[in-house]
Design goal:
The chain has a single domain, classed as Jelly Rolls (Sandwich), CATH 2.60.120.200. The protein is globular, with a radius of gyration of 17 Å. By secondary structure, the chain is mostly beta strands. The chain has 1 helix and 16 strands.
């Protein structure tokens, strides 16, 4: 369940990187509590899912933040990861992942995750979910090392932040459509689903809601990605950059909260 993200200096932290002058962001208001929900069939499969089991970010996860003396992010609660106020996602390699076991993500799957985007400047990338078959990479690392994975980012296109889906297949990537602009300094509630019955190799949906209940009435938009190959995946990622050694000085930061995975009924 969500905790109040205030006075973070007094909350026990699982800290990656050295202490710094920069601080992790403070969220100005608490969004709704985690709710027990059953998907309403807002897109893709719908109806074939049971309960959504929340991940504990303090148990069994591995993380890295390199190239940034301020540390890119911190685990600030068992279900919350909060990014630093001052880092460049295109000039820092950072990621946080869990090894689920070889071939764990086969067939259909679905996740919920809540994201608060605090700040977004030109051309920055804020990764909030991914599955893949390699450890220790952001999406740029997957491309450079001929990896395979599916990735969800909030990307600033120099006009507005938008939600994007990407497939990396043997190092080559394709993107789905993008949403209209998403809001800065407010919570958005996302649902990512792979439905292998749609298309030759399956389709991934990222649904964007304006309420944590995620009913059909709350659905704001859907990003769709048609897959080019059927893949099973081992690693689950969250909080990820896109390090291109850009040398940019622009920032993006936010909070990832209440990542959960649905059981198939």
């Amino acid at each position: 369940m969500k905790k109040l993200l205030l006075s973070l200096l007094f909350v026990p932290l699982l800290l990656f990187g050295a202490a710094s002058e920069s601080a992790i962001i403070e969220v100005p208001e608490v969004h709704s509590m985690m709710v027990v929900r059953a998907p309403s069939g807002g897109g893709g499969g719908g109806g074939g899912w049971g309960s959504c089991n929340e991940f504990d970010f303090t148990s069994g996860w591995t993380g890295e933040s390199t190239g940034d003396p301020n540390s890119a992010w911190e685990v600030t609660d068992s279900d919350t990861i909060t990014s630093n106020t001052n880092f460049d996602s295109r000039d820092v390699t950072y990621f946080y992942y869990k090894d689920m076991g070889a071939g764990y993500y086969s067939g259909n799957f679905m996740f919920d995750v809540d994201v608060y985007l605090n700040e977004s400047e030109d051309w920055q990338w804020f990764g909030f979910w991914a599955v893949g078959n390699s450890a220790n990479y952001d999406m740029k690392g997957y491309v450079d090392n001929t990896g395979d994975g599916i990735f969800a980012y909030i990307r600033d296109n120099s006009v507005n932040p938008v939600v994007d889906l990407y497939e990396v297949n043997a190092g080559s990537y394709v993107s789905g459509d993008s949403t209209p602009a998403v809001s800065v300094t407010s919570w958005i509630y996302l649902q990512i689903e792979r439905d292998e019955s749609v298309g030759t190799y399956g389709t991934v949906y990222c649904r964007i809601y304006d309420d944590p209940g995620r009913t059909e009435e709350d659905l704001v938009n859907t990003v769709t990605l048609t897959l080019s190959e059927q893949q099973d995946f081992r690693y689950l990622y969250t909080m990820m950059g896109y390090d291109t050694n850009s040398g940019m000085s622009w920032d993006i930061n936010g909070v990832i909260d209440s990542l959960c995975e649905y059981e198939e009924s």
